[in-house]
Specification:
alpha/beta, D-Maltodextrin-Binding Protein, domain 2, 2 domains, six-stranded mixed β-sheet, five-stranded mixed β-sheet, 11 strands
């Protein structure tokens, strides 16, 4: 018993020592989407803020593809020392219900660190489409079934699921076209390859303001402060809402003291001057909750999305 107590004490001391000296080298933040998109923008801004505080660089590593699973698998297989982190969307909670087989286990292979933000999506369309509102889009889609293309950041990703919810709620038929992230999807919208898409506000707000894209509705409970004239879907007569998240994960096995330290420092960074005032323009609200609270949110979302996917009969490509 004395020997066992000594081992436990030594392990606790070692974990505490790691937390006290962290970070002693650059930290890698893995992003599941291409450079230039909404998540990449947040990762670089957060990385800069953390790097200034830590006196160590935060290196953004873009690993797009497979609905975020390539990036997640990269982190799952990394050492559990806090030097490789995953920043991802609620798509992470969708994958277990979407794919029959994953190279990782979303629960066993990861340690939730914190929910960075809460967010909504905005439905945008190309100005080439005559629709000026959600109602007009629905009327057009009903008059020309299957002729309107809607884009997403991948099969089963939140923009895809919301597109399917819109189709079901409005009784319309649109063709789904997946892309590998926000940036290529935005370019497809601007080029007219797809006519509509649900998008994070960060990547499309400049194009909405310039008139290159038109905002039709927001998925949150309330209107966006950045788009006060754009209605919610409930205001437009469609009874659905969607609030997503960005979150930080570490590989499973990271010391609890280090995960708690990361959460505290990230929570401090996201409300610091220079970052706090940018969230609204990006379509996010800062959260920064504890690892335990984020783990509970993850479990609830995994159950909810599995139900939606099952009922909509969505299958990964």
């Amino acid at each position: 018993m004395r020997a066992l107590g000594a081992l436990i004490a030594a392990a606790a001391f070692s974990a505490a020592a790691v937390a006290q000296t962290y970070p002693a080298k650059p930290v890698r933040m893995v992003v599941p989407f291409a450079a230039g998109g909404a998540v990449d923008t947040v990762a670089r801004a957060l990385g800069q803020k953390l790097g200034d505080s830590w006196k160590q660089p935060v290196l953004v590593d873009n690993r797009p593809g497979a609905g975020g699973n390539i990036a997640a698998d990269t982190v799952a297989k990394a050492p559990a020392d806090g030097y490789t982190l995953l920043i991802t969307t609620q798509g992470f909670a969708i994958s277990p219900g979407l794919y029959k087989k994953l190279p990782f286990d979303a629960v066993r292979d990861f340690a939730p660190v914190t929910q960075l933000t809460s967010s909504y999506l905005v439905l945008v369309c190309s100005p080439q489409l005559p629709s000026q509102s959600i109602r007009e889009l629905i009327a057009l889609a009903r008059s020309k079934p299957g002729t309107i293309n809607y884009g997403s950041t991948g099969t089963g990703a939140p923009p895809h699921l919301l597109g399917e919810v819109l189709k079901s709620a409005a009784g319309i038929d649109m063709l789904h076209v997946p892309y590998k992230g926000d940036a290529p999807l935005t370019q497809a919208l601007l080029a007219g390859e797809v006519q509509v898409a649900f998008m994070p506000l960060a990547g499309v707000l400049p194009h909405i303001k310039s008139g290159r894209l038109r905002a039709l509705g927001v998925s949150g409970k309330e209107r966006s402060a950045e788009l006060p004239d754009v209605p919610t879907f409930r205001e437009a007569g469609l009874p659905f809402e969607f609030t997503g998240w960005l979150g930080i994960f570490a590989p499973a096995g990271v010391p609890r003291e280090l995960a708690a330290q990361l959460q505290r420092e990230i929570a401090k960074a996201i409300v610091a001057p220079g970052l706090l005032e940018r969230w609204s323009a990006w379509g996010y609200e800062p959260v920064g909750n504890t690892p335990e609270d984020f783990a509970a949110r993850l479990a609830a979302d995994m159950a909810m999305y599995a139900k939606v996917i099952r009922e909509a009969r969505i299958r990964a490509d």
